[in-house]
Amino acid sequence: MKRLRMIISAVLMLLALVLINFYIGQHAWYLVQEWLPGTSAGLYWTVFALVSFAYMIAMIPWPQVLKPLARLFKVVGSYYLACMEFAIIVLPLTDLVYWLLGVMGYSRALFVSEAGATLLLMLAIFLLWGSRNAWSTVIRTHPIAIDKSTGTSAPLTIAVASDIHLGNIVGNRHLRRMVAEINGMQPDIILLAGDVLDDSIEPFLRNNMSEQLKQLKARHGVYAVLGNHEYYGGSIAEYTRQMASIGIKVLQDEVIEVAGTYIVGRKDKTAESMEAGGRASVSALLEGLDLSRPVIMMDHQPTGFAAAAEAGVDVMLSGHTHRGQIAPNHWITKRLFELDWGYLRKEQLHVVVSSGYGTWGPPIRWASRSELIKLTVMLEGSKKYSGEGITAKTVLI
Question: N or C terminus of the chain with fewer C-beta within 10 Å?
């Protein structure tokens, strides 16, 4: 029964995509006919189908000799996803204007050409500004006070990166910038809060991206957790081996103690559906720990805040949402999660959810920025910060 439901859901989703893309393709065809009369309909629809379903075509298991073509399809398909979202928003409004002009008795003779030119200009601005938001990174700083002690009053500087999505879109160039930004913080600890990979581990290995990650430097080490995309890629064992070989420990329902502080790494929530044993509860992970010491937990998906607070976690770090990545998707993530981005105080628990460093699909962001997190954790006895998690650096996006 579960398999049948999955098949029905997949068929319905595919049907919806076909209908949406036919709607978009028909509007583009009107413009092609206006600007390039005589264009073959068969040729147009063949090219449009390949572009509109390029991302799905790239997911097919291609033979090795055709892998470069598959990567091209993925890049083209990624950008088309952004164009598709843009079209879904603006084309119904364009149709409404077209209808109103007819109702009001105005001539619509030049509407297709003028509207097409306007929308293409808007799309260019959308893609250019969205690319700037995706590739130009901001550092969010969060001073946090914890009424616990590590035996020293010195604050901890923790650099956090989530959702890097290393693959065919986000590669070594963006990764080098991340390493430079993080090392510039001179952190005590570096935490990678899931989705380091963008599904497949193949680009990570082919482009030797571990050599860039290896350059991350922190006084007390670099630690990571799994995200949903590591599960989707199906190469968790190889990924954890690769990370271990460069000195990065991937915590899977594990706790380590560094600098008098507990670092807790949960398996991603995806493990509940993709692994027979699921994942351990927060209370089980913290059982037997000395909770007079700070507890900092990475959990890729921002859920279960109340359980974390009750168990004794002091700081919870998550990502996953990308803050919707492209507006108005952030309206959806706001409704899906108690906190989809930013800072929240829940009892003694400080929650920080990052919009992520990389991107999924198109390297485009609207109402969202590529970001890194710099936490300054003030311990017992410090009077410098109030503990309300005020962002010291405000960035307009």
Answer: N
For residue 222, which phi and psi values (nearest 5 degrees)?
-120, 130
What is the per-residue pLDDT across 271-315, written as a single tens digit (0 to 9) for each? 999 998 899 999 999 999 999 999 999 999 999 999 999 999 999
- 3-state SS assignment for residue 93: helix
How far apart (Å, rounded) are the C-alpha atoms in residues 254 and 265?
5
The rounded percent of the chain whose pLDDT value lies above 90 is: 86
Start-end ranges of CATH 3.60.21.10 in the chain? 138-378
**Which of the four CATH numbers 3.40.930.10, 3.30.70.890, 3.30.450.20, 3.60.21.10 does domain 138-378 have?**
3.60.21.10
- Enter the pTM of the model: 0.91
Nearest to 182 by CA among 243, 139, 144, 223: 139
Residue 396 pLDDT grade (very low, low, confident, very high; cuts 50, 70, 90): very low
**310-329 pLDDT per residue, tens:** 999 999 999 999 999 999 99
Q: Which residue has the tokens 């799309």?
A: 123
Asked whether the beta carbons of 160 and 352 are under 8 A apart, the reply is yes
